[in-house]
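Can't attach files on this board, so I'm pasting raw text. These are the components:
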Amino acid sequence: ETGVTQTPRHLVMGMTNKKSLKCEQHLGHNAMYWYKQSAKKPLELMFVYNFKEQTENNSVPSRFSPECPNSSHLFLHLHTLQPEDSALYLCASSQDPGDSAYEQYFGPGTRLTVT
Amino acid sequence: GQNIDQPTEMTATEGAIVQINCTYQTSGFNGLFWYQQHAGEAPTFLSYNVLDGLEEKGRFSSFLSRSKGYSYLLLKELQMKDSASYLCAVKDSNYQLIWGAGTKLIIKP
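---
Top answer:
Structure tokens for the assembled complex are below.
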């Protein structure tokens, strides 16, 4: 089983739709992350969960709502998005985020287009 | 504010050597990471430096100078499959990864 999986891989939605992105990690990690990747811009950290508890929320608009039911699953619920929210949404996981040496493992991402 | 700078794009020839530079200004330092990202794929981990010096891993090496806020990724014996974006990231004092925008490396035959 691939380390970190994401579904769907591509999503087109209107501004009034509600959709959810799903991420699952099979690595036994404690922490999971949502990132936004826009063309030619740095990865933007959106949310961090450590042992299912949200530890970071980097001023993300409320139209993005995360959910972490357990250490292996992470969701990003989307509603009333704007065209500028179109981007690649990446999920990642790692061991203890408070240890500097642990790298993050990324899923393949969901390419989101808001029309 | 926190900032990671790396060149936007570089071109190199198959079989040659290329050095991708990264400079950083962050609040605290808990290690520097290099990732490779092929178009349409997930970033994958390449290297980690926390102490000054050179870390070698096969054809790839990564160097760190903490006093200069500087790192480079050195790729030797370039292959066409090395065409990708290379992302530099620093863990700050809060153990958050601060990312550069990435360097797109184009390999020509």
